[in-house]
Fold:
Amino acid sequence: MIEVCEKCYNALKIGKIVEANECMICSGLLYRLDSIADEILKRLKDYEFDTFLIGSRSYGSLKALEDYLNLDDKKRLKHRFNRELSKVLARKSGKSYSTDPDVTIIYDLENPSFEVQVAPLYIYGRYKKRVRGLSQTRWICRFCNGKGCEVCNWTGKRYLSVEELITEPIREFVGGKHAILHGAGREDVDARMLGNGRPFIVEIQDPKRRKIDLKELEKIVNEFCRGKVVVSDLKFAKAKDVEFIKSAGFVKVYRAKVVFEKEVSREELEKAVEKLKEQPIHQRTPLRVLHRRADLVRVRRVYDAEIILHRGKVAVIKIVAESGLYIKELVSGDQGRTKPSLSELLGVNCWVEKLDVIEVRGGL
Ligand SMILES: [Zn+2]
Ligand SMILES: [Zn+2]
Structure:
C-alpha cells in the first residue's frame, strides 16, 4: 500500500498516512516550502523583479508512480507544489505570480534543487548615426576571428559598431551579462542615419535591474557615444516587439549624393527621376552583399523621388522607398542586376557617393 503524508493524503484520498519525510510522493517537500522559498529569495537577492513563475519537473520515479496511480494533472505533485510554493513565495517577497514573469524558478522534484531563469529586459528606442564608418552590429575581423591582428590594428574588429556603442553602457547600467541590438533594418557602414532615427530594441540578458530611469539611461548612453550615435525615445518593450521591429518593413527616406560619369541636363535628370517612380524596381541581390544574402530578385517600389540639388555631374536626390530597396544599386544599376536604375534611365553611368537615411517612417 502507498504511504503518504497528510497533505498528499488530503489531496489524493489514497494510501496510509505516515511521517512527512516518508511520503512516497512528496518526500516531505510540501512541509519545507518555507525554507525552499528562503533559498530561492537568497539566490535572487541581487535581482530586481516584480513577478515570478514557478515551474517544476518530474521525470523519474515520482512521475512513474503518479502515472501508475493514474493521477490527473491537478493532483500531481508538480501542480500542488507549484501552487503552494507560489503562495509562500508571494507572501515572503511581496512579489506576485505571473505567466509572463520577470523570473522563472524551475524546481526539480526528483532531485530537490532549482534553477533560476531571469527574463531578458527589452528597451526600445531610436538611434541616429551621425558619422560614417560605423557598422550597425558587431563586425568581427575575419582575418583573426576577433583575436586581434595587424589588419584590424589589434582591435579584433573591422569597424566600431552602433551595437557596441549603444548596448555596452546599457548592459553596464542594468547589470546584465550580455546585450544585443535588434534594428528595424540597417544602414550601410558608410551611410549615416539621421532625421528621426532608426527604431531598435536592446535585449539585455540576465539583467539585475529593471526599474531604471530611462531618461537617466539615455543621458548615459549619449555621453558614452560622444556624438557618433545619439539615442532617444527610450521605453520598455516586450519580447514580441523584437519580431515586429525586425520584420515591420518601415518606409525609408534617403538623401543620396549622386555623381554622373558625364554632365547631364536638368531636364534629362528630371525625366529619369520621374520614371523611377512609375514602375516597380526589380532588384537582384546586389553583388556587394551576395556573400551573405541569397541570390534572388526582389520587387520594390520607389514611392517618391525628388531632385534637391543639381550641378552638372553632381546631384542630391531625395528618395522615398519601400523597405528592402537597395539605393546604391537603384542608382548604379549594379551591372544590370537592378532594373530599371537611374543609370539605365539616363543612359549615363552614375553612382551614389554619399548616402544618408533621413527618415524611418514607423516605430513602436
Ligand atoms: Zn506528501
Ligand atoms: Zn584582426
